């Protein structure tokens, strides 16, 4: 990550002067931004000898809130920075609103970027931080005032306009950073882990405000995070990344309920999806998932290819689909109970396998108790054991 001074310069690069003041002012006043689609084709990015992203395709529709989700080092920030024009691509193309922007300067892409660091000018008031890019662009004063007033109202910054960044809380500073992006009225808004420096309460508050902001603006937003809660709550669609490759792209509900592979299955969810190794047995037209200790009928499962007798696989089931203290043929010992307020996570020791269950009952349970449990066969996932792909 660049130091703060460099980051501030880069953050304003999209608004740096590239034409005469009159041309810039006229264009700025005449054209209010429209949400734009982003189309990425066969994108490859190499940093030295390291290939960070290879042959990546991604389509972001106009007005969408797309979240790039993945662990550290998966390439999500690199992808975002390439859209912003801060990183040169090695191959492929980037289109914004149907226009090839692969080699365009950041200032010509009509994007606004919010960094992880607040990147505010410490000697300027909130009002001047918000208006800085517009002022150096030669935007008319009346237009600057309109945009600053609009952003201030959206983000509840009105009482803070005369303050310096040092007089603000962390959440207020991040609001100012977001506001500086809003005043540019860009076609595409890019967010690089903007909430990661905040405490849990502030993250929750700003996450809600970002969601509402997207609803009000109707703008195209691309957001990078490693936090699955942010991804699930903010995204209209999310791209789960690993090793520079998009593992799955879909709505949060789709990705959570039908993960494409074992990585996605275990990366999403808290606790992670339960995994059990076994084989498939075909008997009298029925398909059963079998382990050394039990069988589960999975005949209703939508297999992508016809199952094979004796096929080794992994069964995945979310913790909320493991039901404890109900009538069931299986019994296990409670190894741990984790109270979570409105629910609890019960860990079951089943023949050496640890199975998590999310339980919302108030039935008394203690470590060492033996309980009955069952799985909701309608909500299981089956994966190839060797490659990890969904069956």
Give the topology string: H per helix, E per strand.
HHEEEHEEEHHHEHEHEEHHEEEEEEEEEE
- Under the CATH scheme, which architecture of the largest domain would be assigned? 3-Layer(aba) Sandwich
Main sheet overview: 6 strands, mixed
Q: Terminal Cα separation, in Å?
A: 40 Å
Can you identify the CATH class of the largest domain? Alpha Beta
Q: What is the CATH superfamily classification of the largest domain?
A: P-loop containing nucleotide triphosphate hydrolases
Residues in helix, %: 25-40%
Determine the number of helices (DSSP H or I, runs of at least 4 residues): 10
Spatial arrangement of strands, main beta sheet: 6-7-8-3-9-10
Question: Structural class from helices and strands?
Answer: alpha+beta
Rounded to an integer, what's the Rg over CA atoms? Answer: 25 Å
Report the principal-axis shape.
Answer: globular
Beta percentage is 25-35%
Count of folded domains: 2
CATH topology of the largest domain, by name, is Rossmann fold
Mean pLDDT: 86
Low confidence ranges:
1-11, 13-32
DSSP E strands, number:
20
Describe the structure.
- There is one protein chain.
- The chain is an alpha+beta fold and 391 residues long.
- The protein has two domains: 4-264, Rossmann fold, CATH 3.40.50; 266-384, OB fold (Dihydrolipoamide Acetyltransferase, E2P) (Beta Barrel), CATH 2.40.50.140.
- Helices cover 26% and strands 31% of the residues.
- It has ten helices and 20 strands.
- It has helices spanning 4-11, 21-30, 76-84, 126-136, 141-155, 170-182, 200-217, 228-234, 252-257, 262-267, and strands spanning 38-47, 50-60, 65-69, 91-96, 99-100, 111-114, 188-192, 220-225, 237-242, 245-250, 274-283, 286-290, 295-297, 312-317, 322-324, 330-339, 344-350, 353-359, 370-375, 380-384.
- The strands form four sheets. A six-stranded mixed beta sheet has the order 6-7-8-3-9-10, with helices on both faces.
- Strand 9 (237-242) and strand 10 form a beta hairpin.
- It is globular and about 75 Å long.
